[in-house]
Each structure stands twice: as structure tokens, then as C-alpha cells.
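Lab meeting notes turned into a lecture example. A postdoc, R.K., suggested we walk through two folding results consecutively so the class can see how the record format repeats. The first protein's sequence and C-alpha cells come next.
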Amino acid sequence: MNILAIADEECPSLWDYYTPGCLDEYDLIISSGDLKPSYLSFLVTMAPCPVMYVHGNHDGRYKEQPPEGCECIDGKVVTYKGVRILGLGGSIEYTGGPHQYTQKQMNRRIRRLKWAIRKVGGVDLVVTHAAPRGVGDAEDFAHRGFTGFLKLIERYRPKALLHGHVHLRYGTNIKREQEYEGTKVINVCGQYTLKYPGNFSVDH
């Protein structure tokens, strides 16, 4: 399955300079948050596949203007073409805005999904906005990751965790891919092509 993962920055090649047919290879599009709702609505119109998303910390606008035709998987476990996908959007709380959580609040969100995960027999992909703490996050408070994601990986051993929030242009030392306990942790800022269950490859 070819999955296009996106987050944080709208890609001109997929929107302003869209070429008909450029999305035909994808079986699923996943957003890790902080993208314009009109961008997601455009992609789901042009692509031959669904668009699923979680909220970023700047996605309070989705309440009034949700991405039309797209499926919110934030706080849910869904199965698509046999792939079990868990969605947990939001960032660490730093201004009190929507889709911001303390470490304890995110831990509670994860615990609430325990039965749903057990019902489908595990999870293959985790889609978040923030990164796990210490694996792809940053040291400034607004971009620190969640410790609960580390425990989630340790317990359920997903193939990959897809996140955004830390823009690649923030620094030259920001890594696209890391690994934690056998799980690939991938920063999908901009766009990233995930070949599941095969090898992972970057598509800039």
C-alpha cells in the first residue's frame, strides 16, 4: 500500500502546481495536522483514495470549517485495507489553546483507546501531531513530545509512528526518520511516501 503522509506545510506541487494524475499511485492520504482544511479537501477531491487526519495544535479552525470529504481519526482506531491505524492529534499544552494536552491528559487519551486496540488485535500505524518525547521532538517547550507515545510504542510495537509539528526548516539537524524499540518514527512535515508494509522511502 502506498500512503502519502503530510503535515504542517502545504506542498506547492500538490496544490498550487498540481499536475493531474500525480496522486493516482496512492492508496491512502494521512495528515498529521496543521494543514489548511481547503488543502485536505482539495486532495481528497483529486485523489482516488480517502484522506484521514488528526488535529494539529493550530487546527482549531476545523471546528467551524472541517475538511470536507475527509475522515477525522483523532482519538480513534480505524482499519483500512487491513492496516490498523491509531490517531492521536494535538501538541503539548503551552498556551491553553485547542488540541493542546498535558502529559497526563495525553496518557488518559491513550488509555481510553486500550479496548479499541484490543478489539482489532493491535495497531500497525500510529498517526500523531507531536513526536514521542526524545524521539523527533525539540527542547523548546511548545515542541516537546509526549512520554505516553513511548509507552504506546513499547506496548503495541507498531510498524511506524507518523508525526509532524517539528518543521524540517527549524534546523539542519532535524531527522526525517528515527527508530525506537523497532518502530520507525517518521517526521512527515511537508510530504512523505510510506510504502507499507515494505520499505520506507522519502518523496520530497
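The second example is placed directly after the first for contrast:
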Amino acid sequence: MKKSFLQSLGPGLLFAGAAIGVSHLVQSTKAGAEFGFGLLWALLLVHLFKYPFFQFGPRYAAATGETLLDGYNKLGKGVLITYYILNFATMFTIQAAVTIVTAGLASQLFGFTNDLVIWSSIILFVSILILILGKYKLLDKLMKYIIIILTISTIIAVSVAFTNTKDTFDVRQILPLGSVELTFLIAFLGWMPAPLDISIWHSIWSIEKSKNTNIKIKPKDAIFDFNVGYIGTLILGICFVLLGALVMYKSGGSFSNKGGVFASQLINLYTKNLGNFSYVFIAIAAFTTMFSTTITTLDASPRTMNRSSKLLFNKEFKFGYWFWITFLFLGTFAILRYYLADMGNLVKIATILSFLTAPFYAILNYILIFGKHTPKEHQPNLFTKILSIFGIIFLVGFSLWFLTSI
């Protein structure tokens, strides 16, 4: 049993690698810097209410041996076409958003050049090289080390921040009401801990894991593996909010929307407040956070588009995965080349769209996991079903509140 668990561990960490990125490093840090501890309620609630829908990805894959995309196809071609259009419309912006933040951190950490387009190209090439050489197996192994490094360096940074702070803690919670504050809250919730369509990525990684190990992963092991990654995203999300609150709250500083300037501000402000020795911990934590997101999104979006294409056109595309990776690289490069100055707004748009489309994925996953396509013995218990219903109400309610308030 122990051997089986160790072999099945992996997709949950890939989920964590994809989730812990802009939502944590940028949005969570900004939440702490602008609201102190005041938005911890939002972070905890969104983790609670999104939990079942993320969990349904590995649960469905383990129970049926299929990806969620196969399940969507069974619900109707229209459902899959809608997903295909939504994913195509957002994947370039999402990849550009995570890559530019990674590039900004790389320019601060390694020097060489301050041209973020050049750094973005290098990072994308390195990511593609890793995927070409090792495919899923190398990505799976690499992510375990990245998450360990990220967790240790972040916890050290938070511990130092707690030790150095002389201020009293104000733990009052805040409900943003103004249009600017509400827009930030929705953007914060949109990618915290991740967009809901990552549940689809997780189901694909789970199937890929089974193919590579020739072991059928049991639903129980798949859910445990997911829980490890999900709890990790929650803990690190809290850590980044705390870092922002302890180091930046009421500091009088404001963040730039430009990736390179933001990265410099982030690292320098931490170093200034925590001491020069903390630079390496902050820089490594920040860079590994974003690099893990960059490589996992670069792997996942092409997988989803390739699988969707196969299901829609009922045809196997021999080099479909590599076609979509190349297409994603070119589209991302074009955005970074011509819209670099607007990256702050692009990130905001991408995160808000992710939140507004969340009810779509939540309802689909709910219908699929509690319907005829999932064996009864593998369907969640009553508590999870009730939590799912409240989760849908939460996501729909916040979306309507935002749309009627802007």
C-alpha cells in the first residue's frame, strides 16, 4: 500500500505547481499589502467552496479512467465546444501573464538583461526543452523538488517577518465595497487558489500518470494526493498574505503594473524590511513559484486543446500536443511583444474572467460527478454534495454581485 501511494503521488503536486503562481505571489501579496489580514476570510472561503470542484477532476479520472473532457463530451458536444472556445480565448493571456512575472523575477535574480521579452523567450524555451526531454515523467519529478524548495523558502521568509515585526496585529476582516476594491477582490478570488478549469488539467495529469506507471490509481489514493497539493496551496496562500501584511501593509508603497518593476519592488521591499540575508530566500521562493506555474500551464493547455480537438473531430492528431505548444508559444510571444506595457491590466482581465467562468465549470463538474457517468460507489458523500451546492451559490452570487456593482 505504501509503495502504491508513493507511486501515485504527483498530479496533486502538479496542481499545486500550477495553482501557486500569480494568485499567490502577486494577488495574495497585494491583498496583504493593501488590506493587511483583512482578506483572510476571502482566501479561506474560496478554498472551501472551490474544493469539491477541483477534487472532482482526479476523482472522475480515477473512477472512470477518463478525463473530465471525455465527461463533458458525454454531456453534449455543445458543452465541449463552449469549453474549447473559452480555453482558446484565455490560454494565451494566462500564459503571457504567468510568463511575464517569471521573466521579471528572472531578470532580478540572474541579471544578464532587463529585456523581459528576451527573458520570457528563454523561460519558455527552457520549459519546452524540459517537456521535450522528459515529457510527463520529468515534469512529475521536477515539481516535487520545486514545491519543496518553494515551501521551505516561503516558510523561512514568513518566520523572519514575524520575528522582525514590532507592530501589533490587526486581525479585523474587511469586506471591500468600492468598485476598485471589489474589482480587486474578484480578481483575487478568480485565481485563488487557481482557475476552476485546472480541475480538467488535473484529470489529464492523472490519466497520464496511470499510463506512465502502468498502475490504475485508486480513487482514494487520487483524492489523498490531491488533498496534499490543495492543502499546500492553502498554506502558501496564507503565507504570502502574511508576508504582504507584515512587510508591506501601511508602508506607503504602491505596486507597478509592469512585470520587471513589480518584481524589483517585491524583492527589494522584502529585503529592506527583512534584511539583506533574506534576499536569496525571497528570490528563490518567488522565482520557483512562478516557474512552476509557467511550465505546468505550458504543458496543460496544449494537452486540453489536443484532447478536445480529438473528441470534437473524432480524429487522432499525431503531433497535436506539440502543435498546440508551438501555437501557444507564438501567441504568448506576440502578446508579450506588443502588449507588454498593459500586462497589469491583462492579468486583471484574465483573473476576473476566470472567476466569472467558474460557475460554468463548477456546475459541469457537479452534474458529471453526481450523474450517470460516474459509478455510484465512487460518487462523493452527502456532505461533499451539500458543500458543492453552497459552492455553486457562492460562485454565482459573487459573480452577480460584481457584475451589478461595477
